[in-house]
Amino acid sequence: MDEIEERRHVVLRNLAAHAGPARGRLCLSLDNAACLARLSPEVITAIENGSSCAISLAVLIRLALFLGLTELGVPRPRPPGME
């Protein structure tokens, strides 16, 4: 159980740093992103601000993947030749 909670904190910390810019790259407003991700705007705002929230690891991973990030909430590396 501690391992899951630790991973949740890592993903949450990474999303705090990368979710806002990823949402911006997708040209999604807060309301549109919330609607498409099936989360409330308040939850996405809390995640982007790094506020502690009672969101499960599964939901955090789903949001990360929705935003084009890895399961750990960090940007994917650019493909070779696209750097």
What sequence of helices (H) and strands (E) makes up the elements? Answer: HHHH
What about the largest sheet?
none
> Stretches where pLDDT falls below 50 for ≥5 residues?
none
Query: Average pLDDT value?
Result: 92
Q: How would you describe the oligomerization state of the chains in this entry?
A: single chain
Radius of gyration: 13 Å
Cα distance spanning the termini: 39 Å
Structural class: mainly alpha
Number of helices: 4
DSSP summary, beta strand count: 0
Share of helix, binned: 55-70%
Shape: globular
Task: Describe the protein in words.
With 83 residues, this protein is mainly α. Helices cover 61% and strands 0% of the residues. Helix 1 (2-25) crosses helix 3 (41-49). The chain is globular. 19% of the residues are buried. The mean pLDDT is 92.
Entry keywords:
83 residues, mainly alpha, 4 helices, globular
What order do the helices and strands come in, and which of them pair?
Blueprint: H1 2-25, H2 30-37, H3 41-49, H4 57-66
Helix pairs in contact: 1-3, 1-4, 2-3
In short:
The chain is mainly α.
